[in-house]
Design a protein that fits this description.
This protein is α+β, with helices and mostly antiparallel strands. It is built from 4 helices and 6 strands, in the order βββαββααβα. The strands form 2 sheets. The chain has a 4-stranded mixed beta sheet with strand order 1-2-4-3. A hairpin with a 2-residue loop joins strand 1 and strand 2. Helix 1 runs parallel beside helix 4. It is elongated.
Length: about 150
């Protein structure tokens, strides 16, 4: 059955929303999109929750972060990662200079390196059970209601 579920929750000083859509499908197919890729354990727990609640269907669950704290809207610089990139670049520049190639490391290039510049990720610091209880379970309950109404 097709359906839609939605929930919002405040975890730490950030707000999160969870949407889940389902479509008819012969088997169970689950796609999950989380704010950060380092939440693999949470993804597995979400898959288990959906699999226990439904025996078949195609599901797409998306969790998005909505910043509530004004300070958290500003980008953060991962200084230790930037320093490691800079040291690696300096070694490369020194080695290439011996071969007659002159390169320059700019601040702009350093800030464009993966992981150096980004918004703070608060979800990865929240307990997995709290995320499931406050965000995922309410969305799943709303999805069940939606599917039940669609089935009438």
């Amino acid at each position: 059955m097709t359906g839609f579920g939605y929930s919002r929750a405040k975890l730490l000083d950030a707000g999160y929303s969870c949407t889940i859509r389902s479509l008819n499908h012969r088997f169970i197919d689950i796609r999950i999109r989380l704010p950060k890729s380092d939440l693999l354990a949470l993804e597995m727990a979400i898959r288990k929750k959906i699999s226990h609640a439904f025996s078949r269907g195609s599901f797409e669950l998306v969790i998005t972060q909505e910043n509530l704290n004004q300070l958290s809207k500003y980008a953060l610089i991962n200084e230790s990662l930037a320093e490691r990139y800079a040291m690696a670049f300096q070694k490369l520049i020194a080695r290439l200079k011996k071969g007659g190639i002159v390169l320059e490391l700019t601040t702009e290039a350093l800030l464009r390196m993966p992981g150096v510049l980004g918004e703070p990720d608060k979800l990865s610091t929240v307990n997995e059970e709290e995320i499931l209880k406050k965000l995922v379970v309410p969305a799943l309950l709303n999805l069940k209601k939606s599917r039940k109404l669609e089935g009438k």
